[in-house]
Design a protein that fits this description.
- With 438 residues, this protein is of the alpha+beta class.
- It is built from 18 helices and five strands.
- Among the domains are: 23-178, no CATH class; 302-383, no CATH class; 408-438.
- The chain has a five-stranded mixed sheet, with helices on both faces.
- It is elongated, with a radius of gyration of 31 Å.
- The N and C termini lie far apart (63 Å).
- Mean pLDDT is 87; it is low at 1-9 and 346-355.
């Protein structure tokens, strides 16, 4: 018997090791270069105005990564959770080598998987585009261009002789002081507004909005303006990431592991869009959000596309039937409403019963893994109920028209054709009665 050869997956190799320059040293290098040789000026949108920033060449090791980087938000969150670090581990590690080396790996990987393949483009050309310097503040923190900086550091370190041009990199210097909110506004104007529908990862984008709202206290209206999007769209993204994080924690049992839902963008976006449509009532919204989590947890295991299952469960006209199916399947009973409940919540009557949908029933429906068979049966049940309702209406409409014919006059020339049609109706009606209604 021949031996089975086990091939172990090799860990990724990174060539560059970050050694953070002291803050005063970074400031001195930048100031000396501004005083000695300014290559040109580069226009940058800052505080609602276009500012011409001076472009200088800086040593490859001088700038430091912007650790509060929107693109790496998902990777950072998962790493923090996996390593049991504090939530502010990256944010408080601005001057630490360890945080920067972890961030370097994230950025190199992102540069290689981006649609434009930033890493490969720089390696092929061996030089920076003249109109695309890094954007760096007076402390040497890269506001825009982190992936490019990580890429040239890797490329240069692997082959310094071939890529000698990358020993120094062009940087546009923002000399005025910017607080965290203002830095985010610049970043959004340059990156997010341009790339909202391109290569900005959907999870990182949603996390970025959450970060700006919760930690920086930026209102939705301002975030929307900075990103060039409608305010409601930004609110939807915020609600989306809140739902995703709840599902990862409660359903997937793997908090912050965004890689589990990375390929489910359409499921989550459709769910939030349907939940926030005009006319959707509280109990209906609760069901739409819950069914989205159910489909996401069982994604890829259905006999049809996830989208079809999701659409069937979340269609407004089918919500009552969907809730009814799961209520019967799980033997759920309506919770008795206490008199004190209505005193606590003036909207309880509205929430508790909407067109037969009891919000207490929706709350009790469990979200389970490996539940694709039950979910598929629910979809079949909805389709059957729909067909039954349609058949009932057609039969009623047909009877009404037949009865109306009792009061009509029939011209001689049309009688033969009418009789023939009625006989066909009788034959087909008997066939339906005998085959489907016994």
């Amino acid at each position: 018997m021949s031996e089975t050869k086990i091939v172990l997956k090799q860990p990724k190799k990174y060539h560059y090791k970050v050694e953070v320059f002291d803050k005063q040293k970074r400031r001195r290098i930048i100031k000396d270069n501004i005083n000695k040789k300014v290559l040109r000026k580069h226009p940058v949108p800052i505080k609602g105005k276009t500012v011409d920033c001076k472009v200088v060449l800086l040593p490859i090791g001088a700038p430091i990564y912007h650790l509060n980087n929107g693109r790496t938000r998902a990777e950072q969150s998962f790493y923090i959770n996996e390593q049991n670090h504090k939530d502010n581990w990256f944010r408080d590690g601005l001057e630490n080598n360890k945080q920067h080396n972890v961030q370097h790996r994230f950025l190199v990987d992102l540069a290689k998987v981006s649609k434009s393949n930033i890493f490969n483009e720089l390696k092929t050309k061996g030089e920076f585009r003249e109109d695309s310097p890094l954007l760096v503040d007076s402390n040497g923190i890269v506001i825009n261009g982190n992936r490019r900086l990580a890429s040239v550091r890797e490329i240069y370190t692997e082959n310094p002789k071939k890529y000698e041009k990358f020993k120094h990199i062009p940087c546009a210097i923002v000399e005025q002081y910017l607080n965290d909110q203002q830095i985010k506004q610049v970043e959004n104007n340059i990156q997010v507004k341009r790339e909202f529908k391109q290569e900005y990862d959907w999870i990182s984008l949603a996390l970025e909005i959450k970060k700006e709202k919760e930690e920086l206290g930026i209102p939705f209206k301002q975030i929307a303006a900075d990103m060039g999007r409608p305010e409601q769209s930004v609110k939807n993204w915020y609600e989306l990431i809140t739902l995703v994080e709840k599902s990862l924690k409660e359903d997937f049992k793997d908090e912050k592991n965004y890689s589990l839902v990375k390929n489910q963008e359409q499921i989550w976006k459709d769910t939030i869009d349907r939940a926030n449509k005009a006319g959707v009532k509280p109990a209906e919204k609760d069901w739409i959000l819950k069914s989205g989590r159910m489909v996401a947890l069982n994604s890829g295991n259905f006999n049809t596309r996830d989208y079809s299952v999701l659409s069937a469960l979340q269609k407004k006209s089918a919500i009552s039937d969907a809730v009814e199916f799961f209520k019967k399947h799980h033997h759920i009973k309506n919770k008795e409403k206490k008199e004190t409940d209505s005193l606590k919540d003036p909207l309880s009557d509205l929430k508790d019963s909407i067109k037969g949908i009891d919000i207490t029933v929706v709350d009790q429906i469990p979200i389970k893994k490996k539940n694709e068979d039950i979910i598929s049966k629910a979809v079949e049940y909805i389709a059957t109920k729909k067909d039954f309702s349609a058949a009932k209406k057609y039969a009623s409409d047909a009877l009404g028209k037949i009865e109306a014919m009792n009061f009509m006059k029939y011209p001689e020339k049309d009688r033969k054709e009418i009789k023939k049609t009625l006989e066909k109706i009788v034959t087909k009606s008997e066939k339906i009665i005998n085959s489907k209604l016994k």
